[in-house]
Amino acid sequence: MKHFLNMEGPFYRFLTRFVELIVLNCMFLIFCVPIFTIGASTTAMYSVTLKMVRNEESGVYNGFFQAFKKNFKQSTSIWILLWFTGIILLLNYLYLQLYDGDFTLLIIFSLLFFTFIHLLLTILVFPYVARFENTIRESMVNALKIAVTNPFQTIPVLIFSIGPVLLIFLSPHLFLVALYLSIFLGFSLVAYLNSFLFRNIYEKY
């Protein structure tokens, strides 16, 4: 019991990590406020959590600020590009409501395919940028290649990332719980869990 509660014990390590994730979550939300910085903030958060799971930590504050500054330009450019393509997809879905031609089924499948690709990029590209140094194009292409070649690790990442979002639509109670958790821990916890999977994937490269 003494070993369990001492400064080097599992309880203290768990409590320390728990507090670090709360701090990281707050920093992530604060730096997302301008909206156009969400990409850079996500990259910075993953930069910290990827170091956590590799035991290469440099502190939450320093690690986040350094990664945010280092990847700001590239991550923001990718985020704006994803926003732009997302708006195009949305407009296509709206146009589909008015379309009454012979290629409706083909258009639906095409939209679903490109929506899935867009979703994959939105979830996978920022952790990739946090770990590797490439051009914007190379980062987006390589993130998709990694997803295709590592489906069994990618599927849990999608579940961890999308699952909480889907749950909030099931009931008002779950929505309030998800909102509360997101404010204090949700985003950093998802990034932390995903980082264990990303660590196993990225070690191959």
TrEMBL record:
One Pfam family, short name: DUF624
Keyword Ligase applies: no
Record key words, sorted: Membrane, Transmembrane, Transmembrane helix
Transmembrane region(s): 22-46, 78-99, 105-130, 151-171, 177-198
InterPro entries assigned to the protein according to its UniProt record, in alphabetical order: DUF624
Keyword Acetylation attached: no
Name of the protein in question: DUF624 domain-containing protein
Origin species: Neobacillus driksii
Lineage: Bacteria, Bacillati, Bacillota, Bacilli, Bacillales
